[in-house]
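In this section we walk through a basic example: taking a raw amino acid sequence and producing a predicted 3D structure, encoded as discrete structure tokens. The instruction is simple. Fold the sequence below.
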Amino acid sequence: METVDITVEHGETFRKGAARRLRAAGKVPAIVYGPKRPTQAIAISALEYSRKLAHLEGTHLVRLLGAGEADADLHDRVVLIREAQEHPVTGVLLHADFYEVDLTARIEVDVPLHFVGRAAGVVAGGILQPVMRALSVECLPTEIPEFLEVDVTPLGIHDAFHVRDLRLPEGAKTTMDGGQTVVTVVAPTMEEAPVAAAAEGPAVEGTPAEAAPKKAEGEA
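The resulting token sequence is shown next.
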């Protein structure tokens, strides 16, 4: 897996005022943490994050580059993006969490699924229905797949791919139940038949039809 480099520097203990000052300077407050070190406040360039990381899909390794001598303890640490908080309207990055990894220890990550091909059942009028969009995979950090490709071409109507049918890279495994459905092809929805107008059908027993004509005066 390719590693993306990003420059970082030590940040202030985050209060609202400190975060506002960072953002005004084109930077974003963040933290880096892991099982072997205490949590540290850092700052990253908003522009660099947008250019290098914002568009990436799935899980990627990120190598931290210290901005100066004072940030030497941050230099060359390898992390994963655990969370990126964005503004709900503008999409601007507000805060990021980075998790430091041990490159020799296996970790569990979610890998996106890419569905390729045109299912035979779709050609026959069915509808492709993905049930899962990502698969939980356990592997070494350097072996994290960018995505897993699922060829749906053979699937007919009512056919399905399950977790056990997926091909994982060598050395990777999943902890998910092999019987879980990944994607299926469902039959098209049947439209309801139009209801005939009541006036055109026979009179229903127990309901009055047209009123009988009145008998002429003096008729039996």
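Looking at the output, two observations stand out. Residues 115 and 150 are 5 Å apart (CA to CA). The longest helix spans residues 16-24. In the next section we compare this with other chains.
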